[in-house]
């Protein structure tokens, strides 16, 4: 995991608002909800990801001498406020959906109740973390659903938006079912299996393609996968077969061949036929090259004989939906007597739900998920609450599960939803209902706020 001092990784207005709160609302508490307003196009669900980084951030959040000196040089913050920041720690409560939870639009993924300054200061980091990691986990999950019983690996390192994103993409994709990554650092940090073959440059550095294959197989007799499309793909397949027979003769096995361009359907069928005819039916066919759930679905629909897929750019950048409509909105605040009062936003098209809320998941007798209900926290609703308490008075109380356990949870959670939810082009919309009490609160509060303003 990267070690980076992150106290100043926030938008300036978090601090300017915090200074004004320091003057006018120093003792006020507030509750904020972090949620996605609308699902991206062709998405029927999202998968919560990023909680581990958020808890580590909360645990280590403080402003050091260099941070405070930088802020002092901006000449907009008072000495009293900077002194307050020098002793800053998060001391509030946080409820969150565990990583791997399937969720939907308008359902709080994270709920923060804290002194309003503290709740405001952590906003930018929470949004940044949830936006990237949930976006990637959800995209990668769609790829996993598309490959069905085939294997899929993360090849996105060179195309992700920065080194930190590359690490998070590897973790998020493995969390939802990818079998491994080409990213060695991610493999080390998160104990993810690493995989690699060769580049076209390696093949081109030798006078003959066959020479490059022979050199590589002699270097890695137990771990050879050959890239066969540098020059002429059918000829490359034939050269790979020669290497496969050579390795077989010396009691080793060619692991696979990789197709990175051309007509994958036609070439995979040719490769499978020639490999099987040569007695190399154990050699796997690997496909890569601008793949995503849409292209993989089409390849398999046309009966491409591919065993494993390498997915890079389109998954690592979530190219068709590169950002989530993720927001962080206040839902209640204390009055002068310390009593929590619900509040809400009334902007046209952006109205929020007031009060301290919980998401209840309703399942049938077989354990299949049938609907969610967004209601007030203390409502008596028969269903499994999805938000769990992870931080109590600034102290982490949630035991982080291993990445392997989260992988299992994702697979188990998805299996409880209808197949239509996981289709590449979903037409099914999972039902999320608003409880009557929350509806009534929203209606009455909306009237009061409009009248007050």
Explain how this protein is built:
- The protein has 453 residues and is an alpha/beta fold.
- It has two domains: 255 residues, nicotinate phosphoribosyltransferase, CATH 3.20.140.10; 170 residues, Aldolase class I (TIM Barrel, Alpha-Beta Barrel).
- The protein contains 16 helices and 19 strands.
- It has a seven-stranded antiparallel β-sheet. It has a six-stranded parallel β-sheet with strand order 7-6-11-10-9-8.
- Helix 3 packs antiparallel against helix 4 and helix 7 packs across helix 8.
- The model has no long low-confidence stretch (mean pLDDT 95).
Range of helix content? 25-40%
Measured on Cα atoms, how large is the radius of gyration? Answer: 26 Å
**Tell me about the biggest sheet?**
7 strands, antiparallel
- Count, helices: 16
Report low-confidence residues grouped into runs of 5 or more. Answer: none
The CATH homology group name of the largest domain: nicotinate phosphoribosyltransferase
Looking at CATH, which topology of the largest domain would you report? nicotinate phosphoribosyltransferase
Structural class: alpha/beta
Overall pLDDT level: 95
Q: Class of the largest domain, according to the CATH hierarchy? A: Alpha Beta
Query: Termini separation (Å)?
Result: 48 Å
Instruction: Provide the β-strand percentage band.
Output: 15-25%
* Biggest sheet: strand arrangement: 13-12-1-5-3-17-18
Number of strands: 19
Keywords:
single chain, 453 residues, alpha/beta, nicotinate phosphoribosyltransferase, TIM Barrel, 2 domains, seven-stranded antiparallel β-sheet, six-stranded parallel β-sheet, 16 helices, 19 strands, 40% helix, elongated
């Amino acid at each position: 995991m990267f070690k980076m001092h992150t106290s100043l990784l926030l938008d300036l207005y978090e601090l300017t608002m915090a200074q004004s709160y320091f003057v006018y609302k120093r003792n006020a508490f507030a509750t904020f909800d972090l949620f996605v307003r609308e699902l991206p196009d062709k998405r029927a669900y999202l998968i919560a990801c990023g909680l581990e980084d958020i808890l580590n951030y909360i645990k280590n959040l403080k402003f050091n001498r260099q941070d405070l000196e930088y802020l002092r040089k901006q000449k907009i913050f008072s000495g009293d406020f900077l002194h307050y920041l020098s002793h800053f720690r998060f001391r509030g409560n946080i409820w969150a959906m565990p990583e791997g939870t399937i969720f939907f639009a308008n359902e709080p993924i994270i709920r923060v109740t804290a002194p309003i300054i503290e709740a405001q200061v952590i906003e930018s980091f929470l949004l940044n973390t949830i936006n990237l990691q949930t976006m990637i986990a959800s995209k990668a999950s769609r790829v996993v659903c598309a490959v069905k019983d085939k294997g899929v690996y993360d090849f996105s390192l060179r195309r992700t938006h920065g080194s930190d994103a590359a690490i998070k993409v590897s973790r998020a994709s493995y969390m939802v079912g990818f079998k491994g990554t080409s990213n060695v650092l991610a493999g080390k940090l998160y104990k993810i299996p690493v995989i690699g073959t060769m580049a076209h440059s390696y093949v081109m550095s030798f006078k003959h393609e066959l020479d490059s294959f022979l050199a590589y197989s002699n270097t890695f007799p137990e771990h050879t996968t050959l890239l066969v499309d540098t020059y002429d793909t059918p000829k490359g397949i034939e050269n790979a077969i020669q290497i496969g027979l050579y390795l077989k003769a010396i009691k080793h096995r060619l692991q696979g061949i990789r197709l990175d361009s051309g007509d994958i359907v036609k070439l995979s069928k040719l490769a499978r036929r020639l490999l099987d005819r040569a007695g190399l039916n154990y050699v796997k066919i690997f496909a890569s090259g601008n793949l995503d759930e849409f292209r993989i679905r089409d390849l398999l629909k046309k009966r491409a004989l591919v065993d494993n897929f390498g997915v890079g750019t389109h998954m690592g950048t979530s190219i068709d939906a590169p950002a989530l409509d993720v927001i962080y909105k206040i839902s209640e605040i204390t009055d002068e007597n310390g009593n929590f009062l619900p509040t809400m936003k009334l902007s046209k098209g952006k109205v929020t739900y007031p009060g301290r809320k919980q998401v209840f998941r309703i399942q049938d007798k077989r354990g299949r998920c049938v609907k969610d209900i967004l209601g007030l926290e203390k409502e008596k609703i028969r269903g499994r609450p999805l938000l769990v308490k992870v931080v109590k008075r600034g102290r982490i109380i949630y035991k982080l599960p291993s990445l392997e356990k989260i992988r299992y949870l994702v697979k188990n959670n998805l299996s409880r939803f209808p197949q239509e939810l996981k289709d590449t082009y979903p037409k099914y919309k999972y039902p999320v209902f608003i409880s009557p009490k929350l509806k009534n609160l929203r209606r009455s509060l909306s009237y009061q706020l409009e009248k007050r303003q």
